[in-house]
């Protein structure tokens, strides 16, 4: 049965996916590059520089490495401004209860986030003690959809991937979970996250009871 649940951060535990969107939107507006929520879906779960590349592709211009680095830090400054005000009240509804329920059952928990800001955000949310391990972008070479980040978390927890569940709001994240050989829970749109084993529209719909059933039926 399930021995570990590994969570994505942005858009799963707290709504920082919205802050990433707002920060990229501001940068794209400054660059006169069209940017909307549909395009933003492609950036979810993807690292900072890769996201920037996707935006700059649409500008039709070329940028030097230095310019790209300057633009990436500008986006990060917008983002950092937005996350300063995060408090424990910004945990998405249901998520604290779900993690506590999991831990009560003796299941271990982990975080697998592509964000270099993840340690800051979990500190602001005061959830460090709910997570048995944390893997952020600074600890891995390859980003999602590569499974490396989830596999690193399973190793740190000492649990085989087949007994691990991953929870994600991004298509690239769900792909990373599946490639790691884990059970994937998608939070969000059915079409975007169709590769997940179980899809809910919000964390409030997560229940350990239903997770057990879905997991069992998939095996
Ligand atoms: C997460 C988010 C992405 C973000 C990435 C890098 O995966 O889903 O939208 O671009 O982290 O975040 P960072 O805070 O390092 O720029
Ligand atoms: Mg996410």
Topology, please?
Blueprint: E1 4-7, H1 16-30, H2 37-41, H3 48-57, H4 65-83, H5 95-104, E2 108-112, H6 118-125, E3 133-135, H7 148-157, E4 164-168, H8 171-179, E5 183-187, E6 198-200, H9 208-218
Parallel strand pairs: 1-2, 1-4, 2-3, 4-5, 5-6
Helix pairs in contact: 1-4, 3-4
The structure holds 6-O-phosphono-alpha-D-glucopyranose (G6P) and magnesium ion.
What does this entry look like structurally?
There is one protein chain. The longest helix has 19 residues, at 65-83. This protein is globular. Helix 1 (16-30) packs across helix 4 and helix 3 (48-57) crosses helix 4 (65-83). It has helices at 16-30, 37-41, 48-57, 65-83, 95-104, 118-125, 148-157, 171-179, 208-218; strands at residues 4-7, 108-112, 133-135, 164-168, 183-187, 198-200. The relative contact order is 0.18. It is α/β, with parallel strands linked by helices and 219 residues long. The mean pLDDT is 97. The protein has a 6-stranded parallel beta sheet with strand order 3-2-1-4-5-6, with helices on both faces. Bound molecules: 6-O-phosphono-alpha-D-glucopyranose and magnesium ion (MG). Magnesium ion is lined by residues 8, 10-12, 17, 44-45, 169-170, 173. Belongs to the HAD-like hydrolase superfamily. CbbY/CbbZ/Gph/YieH family. Its cofactor is Mg(2+). Keywords: Carbohydrate metabolism, Cytoplasm, Isomerase, Magnesium, Metal-binding, Phosphoprotein. One of its GO terms (cellular component) is cytoplasm. It comes from Melghiribacillus thermohalophilus.
């Amino acid at each position: 049965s399930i021995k570990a649940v590994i969570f994505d951060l942005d858009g799963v535990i707290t709504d920082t996916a919205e802050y990433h969107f707002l920060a990229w939107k501001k940068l794209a507006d400054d660059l006169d590059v069209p940017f909307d929520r549909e395009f933003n879906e492609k950036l979810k779960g993807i690292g900072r520089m890769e996201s920037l590349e996707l935006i700059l592709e649409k500008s039709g211009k070329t940028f030097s490495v230095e310019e790209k680095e300057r633009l990436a830090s500008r986006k990060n400054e917008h983002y950092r401004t937005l996350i300063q005000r995060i408090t424990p009240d910004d945990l998405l509804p249901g998520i604290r209860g779900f993690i506590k329920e999991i831990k009560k059952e003796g299941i271990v928990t982990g975080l697998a986030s592509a964000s270099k800001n993840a340690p800051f955000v979990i500190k602001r949310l005061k959830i460090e003690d709910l997570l048995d391990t944390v893997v952020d972008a600074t600890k891995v070479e390859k980003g999602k959809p590569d499974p490396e980040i989830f596999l690193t978390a399973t190793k740190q927890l000492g649990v085989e991937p087949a007994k691990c569940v991953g929870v994600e709001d991004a298509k690239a994240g769900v792909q990373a979970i599946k490639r790691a050989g884990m059970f994937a829970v998608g939070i969000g749109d059915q079409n975007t996250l169709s590769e997940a084993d179980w899809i809910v529209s919000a964390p409030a719909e997560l229940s350990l009871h239903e997770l057990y059933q879905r997991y069992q039926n998939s095996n």
